[in-house]
Amino acid sequence: MVLTIRNVTKCYPGQTEETAVLRGVSLDLAAGSSLALTGESGSGKSTLLHLAGALDQFDSGEIEIAGTRLSGLSDSQRAALRRNDVSLVFQQFNLIPSLDTGKNIALHARLGGTWDEGWGMRLTDRLGLSGLLERYPEQLSGGQQQRVAIARALAVRPRLLLADEPTGNLDEAASAAVMELMLDLVRESGTALFLVTHSAAIAQLLDRRLHLHHGMAK
Amino acid sequence: MTAAAFLAILSHWRRHPLQLATLIAGLALAAGLWSAVQAINAEARASYARAAEQLGTAGVARLIPESGTISVARYASLRRSGWQLAPVLEGVIRFERQNFDIMGVDLLQHPLAPALTKAAEAEAVSPLEALLPPGRIFAHPETAVHLAASQNVHPVTETEALPPGVALADLSLASRLLRRPDSLSYLLVLPDQAQGLKPLSDLAPGLTLVPASTAASETARLTDSFHLNLTAFGLLSFAVGLFIVQGTIALSLEQRRGMIRTLRSLGVPMRLVSGLIAAELAFLALAAGIAGLAGGYLVAAVLLPGVNATLAGLYGAPVDGSLSLRPGWVLSGLAMTLGGTFLAGAQSLFALWRMPLLAAPATHARGQNARRSHLAGAVCGVASIAGGVLILTMFQGLISGFAFLGALMLGAALLLPLLISTGLSLGARLAKRPFAEWLWADTRAQLPGMSLALMALLLALAANIGVGTMVSSFRLTFTGWLDQRLFAEVYVTTASDVQGTELARWLDAQGIKALSRRYHDTRFKGAPLRIYGFEDDTAYRSNWPLLDALPDVWDQAVSGQAVLVNEQLARRHGLAPGDRFELEPGWQLPIAGVYSDYGNPHGQAMVSMPSLLEHAPDIPNRQFGLRVASHDISGLINSIREEFDIPRKNITDQATAKARSLAVFDRTFVITAALNLLTLGVAGFALLTSLLTLWNQRLPQLAPVWAMGLTRRQLASAEILRSLILAAFTAVLALPLGLVLAWALLSVINVEAFGWKLPMYLFPLDWLRLFLLALLAAVIAAALPARRLSRIDPAELLRVFTNER
Lengths: 218, 805
Prior knowledge:
With 218 residues, chain A is of the alpha/beta class. Chain A has helices spanning 45-52, 75-84, 101-111, 117-126, 142-155, 172-189, 200-204; strands at 3-10, 22-29, 34-39, 60-65, 68-69, 86-90, 160-164, 192-196, 208-213, 216-217.
């Protein structure tokens, strides 16, 4: 399994066990498979995604990424895991405004020392970014920025790709096109995809679906 | 509606207390340092005015001689023609080892006569006693104590009517003490004159009438340049403080764009919104101004003794110590703060005024915007520098010198963002590792938000380098000059002329060469002129610091056929070797050489001793420079003390004399060092505040990199590295600017201010020290944001990614 979440609980300050944002959530995700996480606002979707990305700490339970247990990892060990095994795509794209498109795409893979020029070129070709490599994020449209964010995430060849409403800022047509591309590339690279979405249509495109309600998986 | 809108606008500060503190601190700092300097200037100027008032010379026209002095016969003739004139003889007398400014006046006629009579009567002394031998001296109680302690021939009457440091006596006594019979320094033209008198220009063609309006005290005139220097420093600190304010106002308005848009959508007119923001700024400016004035008052109180030491060291101008709270100072300080606030906020307020109703919240200038803004700034910078150079080449004087410096500093500050941006691009191109690539690019992206603070740092560092180079060059020159001027091994001052003659005889018998040091005080074009007599000695020929001279300078001077003048006299009156110089009426000599003289701001001339004694036979003979082998110095000092009962303090060896002079020199620049340090402190604070105000905007840029696998500790290190890179670039660019500043101070400002031009020396170790200091300031400024970043809760970083933000 690339991702294993077992009985994970998470409370934010001021919350009790009953009102915790996550209450005993468990799931598994194998290499090359995809899982859509749905749920209403405030149900804990993003929190679960962040925990799965080793971005935040949980209170109880356990999470394993590619066989590495997250509990007890130091800050730098978590950072190393994010550098090498996990990639993230966010709704806000979160590109680095000071770097051009080419450098944005390569940054994560180069930080982890896994940058592969050939794979990078293939990604940019597939995502239609070849002519935009010298442009800065502010010079790109929303759809183009989202494709750059996907290219950056996949350039790492991560074991686990986490995506939080990756097409939330795009219109329906662009959203469908981007999703199709992302799923193709995920299959091609054998990456496990864990995606948070409000959209039932997008969730239908993935292998499995999990619904969160008041912090519990249904 | 107004109250509700105002409350909404003010609510911004509740959410951004640090920003509010920064704005108030920036304004208070700007106002504080400016007010401190103004308080010091006002105090000193009031002191000069008080002294002039107390000496009865304020607001009274004067008749001054073109050169030399006015004879008593000339004065009498003018009086006979009906003019009401009051004669004054000024000079310096020495009792024991202490100098006193003495002013000889006609006690019956001088404007101060009633006050002096009252003082004499208070001591149950007949006022007439002052006119009879041995003569009475009047002085401020502070000075009277020293006068009474250093001599017991002339009784001293204390009077508050006189300023400290001045001894006033009847003309006859002053003439005797100064050994200048039949000579008057100038004549006061009393206000009440009879009608129909023959004009003074006809009666006294050799005398110049200086109207009351321009007859400022000599001290005030001499120290004008010093106060202008202080004002320039105050203005620099004010400008550096305003950089902080500008940045904070811009950020606060930018962050409130959304709120303003909402208010306008709800029907609040833009005019009202702008008015409310202006009112908010005015209120904050007044509050900060009051805090700044309080701080400025304290700083002034701390610095005033240093300023007094400087004024005494440079000009011999005593400023009596305490600081008083003047309404004019308070009002001008508040007005300056208010004006500065609106000046700093003008651009942002204008942008706000023009903002369309549906404008989106502004994003930071990046990419094309930033490049355009850097280019525009650079064009303005080049224009400013060119304007400064034009002013310098077209006009002369202190004001044009300072205008050049102002334009140069402003121009360099405007050029800074483009230069740093270019450097950062180069760094990014050379970077090999992804972390370094990101760091360079991110640093460049931060430049628009940091550039004002960096400009402030540039100005502070350049001022430090410039002023530091000037002071160090001056010190080095001064030390070399001391070596040349103080060539005798031992300096002796005897208690009297009789003792002086005995000492000279005794030294001659011992086979020790004694060079006597005698002088005669007179005036040239209304200003004091001291004429020294020198005895022919190889030491003069080999040591004297000549700047410009005819080939046979010493032969001509020794033979009494020529005079040497000091640099300030030559510069002030455009004199050069070969020109003729009138030392006194009927005593003209060609100038054979010009020598450097950093000991005083006044004119000085040197003639051969016989030539001097021929024109002023009765001058004191109490000071001697002795030539002796270095191993005999202490033995000789002991022998002289045993033989002549001369106090230890009246015999000084060369090393001690030099050390004393250097101590005075160092004390003179205490105020400069203090202001330098304060300006650098303000610049460091500007750096800190801009980093803190940028803090909230940083997280969206840092969170993605953190998510990609950089630790918070690495991000914190990057913050410090970024601050270091920017400070290092700024410090490197401050060096050439500082050196140009130093050149301008040494070659333009000093010449106008003191009358001497100094060679410029370079001090790379000082630059290194300052460079490290700038880096330290950068680390300290970045330490707080870096610490916050290293300990930041991941949840705070994650908020950047969450959709429900």
